[in-house]
Design brief:
By secondary structure, the chain is mostly beta strands. Helices cover about 10% and strands about 50% of the residues.
């Protein structure tokens, strides 16, 4: 009898597991509703947040783009309903928005919420797993786009001047001491992180400075019949490099560091689609090396890197 009861309990848990999720919105605040395979509501996060990012599958025109964090506010198929504030005065109403479009939901993934300008992590029941006290966050999807269903999202959370990198189960992968100590002050953090990301590997610099330098490219001008004509406008772009610190390489899938002890210097070689070494090795501490690496016309195989 006990065994039979346990089987029934297991079936009940499986049946109630969320399969899809729908965004809801009231005024400027958002929330989400979770549904099981029978389209019955399992859990609900009331619209009390300025932003809700849920890890879901995205399709456009029947094409599966993979999974990633999507803001529920921008899901399609919404309707606007005027809700009476005062039953005795029908002219006083509040316009609420209900977003009906449902997306395939991936269970046990962090739900990013924003309230009073601060970020935190929730579960399906709306319980806080990481307090709503973080000034900003970055998800691995921000850098590498939508991924396959097996992708394990990583979250870099900033609390004041401290950074912590978490995996999908909110296990700490990297502490603030293992990340460049002025990273949180950079203006374009996504671009800075992109420099550090090589396929499934993240370059880690302990105790060093990640410096951003603006490269200014002058306008291309040409004199035609005595008149100066601008062929290409001037533009600028940031380049990042390291000062000080020691390097290591973190595998984002396993959470393991490549070397037991970090190294003072490191060279990264990329390989093209034919398996041949990239034209320019990358020394992330040397700005000229970074510029040559980025400007090379060789096509890089994003999964093929060698670290020395």
């Amino acid at each position: 009898m006990k065994k039979f009861t346990a089987i029934l309990m297991l079936l009940w848990v499986v049946q109630l597991q969320a399969q899809t999720v729908k965004g809801i919105q009231k005024g400027k605040l958002v929330g989400v509703i979770f549904y099981d395979a029978n389209d019955k509501e399992v859990n609900r996060i009331e619209p009390a947040y300025e932003e809700i990012q849920v890890y879901v599958k995205t399709q456009i025109g029947g094409i599966n783009l993979g999974v990633g964090f999507v803001e529920s506010r921008y899901w399609h198929d919404s309707e606007y309903i005027e809700v009476p504030i005062d039953p005795n005065d029908p002219t006083l109403t509040r316009v609420d928005t209900f977003i009906h479009f449902q997306r395939a939901y991936h269970v046990n993934k962090p739900i990013i919420a924003k309230k009073d300008g601060k970020y935190g992590i929730l579960n399906e029941k709306g319980n806080e797993l990481l307090g709503l006290e973080h000034t900003s966050y970055f998800a691995s999807m921000d850098l590498i786009g939508y991924q396959n269903d097996a992708q394990k999202p990583l979250l870099l959370m900033q609390n004041g001047n401290k950074l912590t990198l978490y995996d999908a189960s909110l296990k700490v992968i990297l502490t603030d001491a293992q990340l460049p100590n002025n990273f949180s002050k950079l203006s374009r953090k996504e671009e800075a992180l992109a420099l550090l990301l090589f396929g499934e590997n993240l370059l880690v610099n302990e105790g060093g400075l990640l410096v951003d330098s603006i490269i200014k490219v002058p306008a291309k001008k040409e004199t035609i019949k005595g008149k100066v004509v601008i062929k290409e406008k001037a533009y600028s772009y940031p380049v990042y490099y390291y000062k000080g610190g020691k390097f290591n390489v973190l595998n984002l899938q396993t959470g393991a560091l490549l070397w037991p002890e970090s190294k003072a210097d490191i060279l990264i070689t990329a390989f093209d689609e034919n398996g041949k070494p990239h034209f320019e090795n990358l020394n992330p501490r040397n700005i000229n090396s970074i510029i040559l690496f980025q400007n090379s016309s060789h096509k890089i195989n994003p999964a093929s890197f060698e670290f020395k």
